[in-house]
């Protein structure tokens, strides 16, 4: 049995196999980046599904015939796929069912990849596995049982924008000055309290001695009351309330404890207290908990994550088995060395060795740009260059940055070059105003208690319902402990509303009419109905031209998303879609073939890998961020972030920084990041300065280059890199030139740009349409 399993999982190394075949009980895998932790999770699930968890039991199942034993022997000599199924049947003892496995990861992208990898390994039955983010898994549990906590199943999930609005309202209602209690600060204090599972009362107790905190505690209290009244949850509530549900309702807890025979949690170093409590509760009965993580990649301290969860695992589960993996399979030697050298500068770490058998690879390319736009242009050009030079696809690239705000200059450059990209976890599609408006209509139509969203749309488009009227409706609702929608239903009875009665009634009847149709139509049809009946679409189209068009397009995209959801969901419903939308974080430009460059913050790139990675904004005050500069602990967290970023790359890594950058403080000069300085120069290949391209330094100067060239290098120091530029042919290209290509035939130049020793051209070919090419590499000729 052991021999057959080893053979089946022969791609894995011995330690990985040990983890995959570990029997029951708690298991901790502690290992560095790219050492196959996630791969082990996938394979462990595959193993459990196929063979059960009885690797360690010596006996084969009862009743094997001699013929069976012969078959097994022969299979070992020659693993003929035709017998594979029979062999699994013979050695499997009690396979674990897919629905009794819970696999948790951090980002939507990682969860999707996990699902894909599982389907690839074990087939369609993987669809029954709960492979989710924390929020995704919690949403599923809450949809089933949230009524036990006094909410209804139609609950709304508030995003950050909703949260901020609500906090502002609460701050105002408590007569506190928003200047002294800035919304982002309050938001973060409440978030941290929720991460620690502190209720408003408990938080108030702990904040008693601090005047400011106790005021924030009162905001928290009101905020929570308002959320509950609106039948709404914020993101942190999703986890907090699931823990509450499991802790308070014995039958619910027992149901899930029994259901989830195996729980596997990726990126465990980044769990906060609430997530830790959730996992612990769920795993309490079977204790079959596998957690994997890397202390060097802990990057969510600011979100309350505590590395203690992973470090104290062995104390929490005395019978736990710990496995360390040390071989990196992802990156080249150069990339891995650079990562190891960088993280070494952290003092507060346990330290570990990570090695690879992968070949050395190319040096890390460093580029200094004039400003952030030039940086974007550099990235776009390099992507096109790589596509032509190495036959790469857009999917092979990721551009990583420290903060979301950095994406816009890069986006502009990619758009201008016609490169399709997908923005992950950035400025969310669902937070665009027009999209949010439509979502708010749908939200109120699902959940009448949602006052916040009702206020957003009651006069959008304009219906002559003024702010004063809305305030009166709200005051009436508050004084009678009802929701605003209920007040609208009876607006005829209130003297105070006499003057706007007609308009309010018209709005209310329109909404009621729509509500009656809600469950009779497919969600996408219903959404179209809402758009036309409320006059919202007309209002958007009537807006100023260019802007209106973009907004209309966004709404079209929203409708397409609903349709897409309908086609893929098992039992599509409007609430189901709303839930999906509230958890969505990604935004994709149109790409015909599903090929796009990924744009993500380093945080959302965790766990992912790409052949070519660009790490942009390698500047002090950007990365490390200005917020972290004063605090050595925070600098260490930034350095771990840098380690995460470097280790995403498989083959090539580009680092770039801008000498000047526009921030909210205006245009400012920036210095290269200390992380660049920490990387040993022998791994770096400093690319040309952008300005005077043709002034090559003499070879002798290059030899005398200062120790760390980033701080003092000359134009053309690419001679240091030893990499040869393509031989220029001396040919010049202009827009309108006719050119000839061996495969594509004749074409006309639409765009021409000198890049290094070559020309990047966009050419309309008669036969094949428009293509971007590097002239010398593509061996173009001029007829
Ligand atoms: P991270 O810390 O970044 O999350 P990880 O430890 O989860 O990394 P994986 O993503 O599982 O690492 O694996 C990294 C790469 O190495 C993947 O491309 C995977 O297919 C490959 N890999 C893992 N184990 C092996 C192996 N035994 N042989 C060959 N390739 C492997
Ligand atoms: Mg991983």
Automatic annotation (TrEMBL):
<dbReference type="InterPro" id="IPR014016">
    <property type="entry name" value="UvrD-like_ATP-bd"/>
</dbReference>
<dbReference type="GO" id="GO:0005829">
    <property type="term" value="C:cytosol"/>
</dbReference>
<dbReference type="Pfam" id="PF13361">
    <property type="entry name" value="UvrD_C"/>
</dbReference>
<protein>
    <recommendedName>
        <fullName>ATP-dependent DNA helicase PcrA</fullName>
        <ecNumber>5.6.2.4</ecNumber>
    </recommendedName>
</protein>
<dbReference type="GO" id="GO:0003677">
    <property type="term" value="F:DNA binding"/>
</dbReference>
<dbReference type="Pfam" id="PF21196">
    <property type="entry name" value="PcrA_UvrD_tudor"/>
</dbReference>
<dbReference type="Pfam" id="PF00580">
    <property type="entry name" value="UvrD-helicase"/>
</dbReference>
<dbReference type="InterPro" id="IPR027417">
    <property type="entry name" value="P-loop_NTPase"/>
</dbReference>
<keyword id="KW-0347">Helicase</keyword>
<feature type="binding site">
    <location>
        <begin position="31"/>
        <end position="38"/>
    </location>
    <ligand>
        <name>ATP</name>
    </ligand>
</feature>
<dbReference type="GO" id="GO:0033202">
    <property type="term" value="C:DNA helicase complex"/>
</dbReference>
<dbReference type="InterPro" id="IPR014017">
    <property type="entry name" value="DNA_helicase_UvrD-like_C"/>
</dbReference>
<keyword id="KW-0378">Hydrolase</keyword>
<dbReference type="GO" id="GO:0009314">
    <property type="term" value="P:response to radiation"/>
</dbReference>
<keyword id="KW-0238">DNA-binding</keyword>
<dbReference type="GO" id="GO:0016787">
    <property type="term" value="F:hydrolase activity"/>
</dbReference>
<feature type="domain" description="UvrD-like helicase ATP-binding">
    <location>
        <begin position="10"/>
        <end position="332"/>
    </location>
</feature>
<feature type="domain" description="UvrD-like helicase C-terminal">
    <location>
        <begin position="333"/>
        <end position="607"/>
    </location>
</feature>
<keyword id="KW-0547">Nucleotide-binding</keyword>
<dbReference type="GO" id="GO:0000725">
    <property type="term" value="P:recombinational repair"/>
</dbReference>
<dbReference type="InterPro" id="IPR013986">
    <property type="entry name" value="DExx_box_DNA_helicase_dom_sf"/>
</dbReference>
<comment type="similarity">
    <text>Belongs to the helicase family. UvrD subfamily.</text>
</comment>
<keyword id="KW-0413">Isomerase</keyword>
<dbReference type="InterPro" id="IPR000212">
    <property type="entry name" value="DNA_helicase_UvrD/REP"/>
</dbReference>
<dbReference type="GO" id="GO:0005524">
    <property type="term" value="F:ATP binding"/>
</dbReference>
<keyword id="KW-0067">ATP-binding</keyword>
<dbReference type="GO" id="GO:0043138">
    <property type="term" value="F:3'-5' DNA helicase activity"/>
</dbReference>
